[in-house]
Design brief:
six-stranded antiparallel sheet; mainly beta
Length: 180
Amino acid sequence: MEPSTLDIVGAQLLELVPHADERGSLTETYRRDWFPGTREMVQANLSRSRPGVLRGLHWHRRQSDLWVIVSGVAYVRLVDLREGSPSRLAVAALEIDPAVRPVALRIPPGVAHGFYAETEVVLQYLVDSFYAGEDEFGLAWDDPALGISWPVADPVLSERDRSNPSLAEVLPDPPSFPGS
């Protein structure tokens, strides 16, 4: 299987293949050889979100994420914040429903990411560095400068996500693109 690229350099979407029989199914959600040349994933996390919740936008300077929506319908948004990236400030919008098309989404460092839970969403994600609070950053989900279309105007947000800075506040100190 080859991951497909999105409008954001380094972000990759990989279609997962369920192997079904009369008992149910088995789906591989990660194999090291799917993403050659990337760092090894070292930690796995499981996130559950109620319908109406929006998580993000979050980003990291050093950490890559690999998301697999296990169940539910999620509207995912990505924004490339990396200085020197050919896709800088590009926005990618995905609707992920694993009942229709199971996928894995690789998100490189410097790319802000978030999702809106249309239904209850279970998200398993792997990261390539252990949790470190100093590598956790946010970006206002509703900043008009981003031009992001979300399916709702008034989602359920954490206090942190309600107070994330605007794009104008983040840009004076953007993450760098590894190719620059």
